[in-house]
Design goal:
Length: about 300
């Protein structure tokens, strides 16, 4: 069997797995193993994805049995530390809401401890959040934040009333993209905005390969958490993000480079330096610049009936 992609022809022998890209159905090639999981990369849209993709039951099992042993849990399990590290992400998302003059209800999906909801409320937005983790919701509620436990289906009473829905470092964790995007579509008003900040594939492809001297069978480094399976299920390419979200009744309005987090220490220095380099790279090459690790995508709801 041969498959033609653009000008290239791939034979079946080169496809190490038979599954297709979750975004574009394109053929997948090995990117690398991580723990007991395998990341594959789409030869057409460039999206890096777990293959096979775990389902919700498998993810539930992994969160119960593996997450506690996951070494970065400790670093990110302190709400105050995370509040400090993620302050640049919050500011960049609030800047989008301000630039688009969002007024009316804003929902933060995957609200965690509620830092973004808190910051949005302080800036005058009518913000609320939903979060799966009971511990994080308890923390947020103790601080009086309007965050409820569950998924987007717990907000059914607000369908068609939400002006903007935000996801900060959430999209890369999903296994049920279609269900989430359909729920977002139902919640938003016509012309409502979906704002997602998530790590994208290009930098991690580059650095992941460099670290292994191009040997794709070597285990992947976790690259500050970006390639840790199964918690990150998909690192969408820019093109992959556009295709996946547009298919569910949205149009892309804008793509921005997200700032780096503020980890502190040596990684923090790398983050700040990279952010400076990226300012120049983005100015010259825009979305073709490969060292922006994370992007902010602004989508607008377009059709009043959610497809699929
Ligand atoms: Zn693809």
């Amino acid at each position: 069997m041969e498959l033609k992609v653009g000008k290239k022809i791939y034979s079946a022998a080169r496809m190490t797995q038979t599954t297709a890209c979750i975004v574009c159905q394109g053929p997948l090639t090995l990117f690398g193993p991580y723990s007991t999981y395998t990341f594959m990369r789409c030869l057409v849209c460039g999206t890096i994805q777990l293959s096979p993709m775990p389902d919700e039951a498998e993810m539930g099992r992994a969160y119960q049995t593996e997450y506690v042993a996951y070494k970065q849990t400790k670093e990110f399990s302190d709400p105050e530390k995370w509040r400090n590290v993620s302050r640049t992400y919050r500011a960049s998302i609030i800047q989008v809401l301000t630039d688009y003059r969002v007024n009316g209800m804003v929902v933060d999906f995957g609200a965690g401890w509620g830092h973004l909801v808190n910051a949005m409320i302080q800036r005058g937005f009518d913000a609320r959040g939903v979060e799966i983790s009971r511990d994080q919701v308890a923390y947020a509620q103790q601080r009086g934040l309007p965050i409820q436990q569950g998924d987007l289906n717990t907000l059914r009473e607000f369908e068609g009333q939400v002006s903007a829905l935000t996801m900060s470092a959430v999209f890369e964790h999903l296994v049920n993209h279609a269900a989430v995007l359909s729920a977002v579509h139902r919640l938003l008003k016509d012309d409502g905005l979906l704002v997602t900040l998530h790590p994208t594939a290009a930098t991690f492809r580059l650095v992941g390969n460099l670290f292994r001297f191009g040997n794709k069978r070597k285990p992947l480094p976790d690259l500050a958490g970006a390639l840790t399976a199964p918690w990150h299920t998909v690192l969408f390419s820019i093109e992959g993000t556009k295709q996946m979200i547009a298919r569910h009744g949205f149009e892309i309005v804008e793509i921005r480079p997200a700032p780096q987090g503020r980890l502190g220490g040596i990684l923090g220095l790398i983050q700040v330096s990279l952010e400076l380099v990226n300012k120049l790279g983005w100015r010259a090459w825009n979305t073709r610049w490969p060292l922006v690790t994370t992007h902010i995508f602004v989508f607008r709801k377009v059709s009043s009936v959610a497809p699929g």
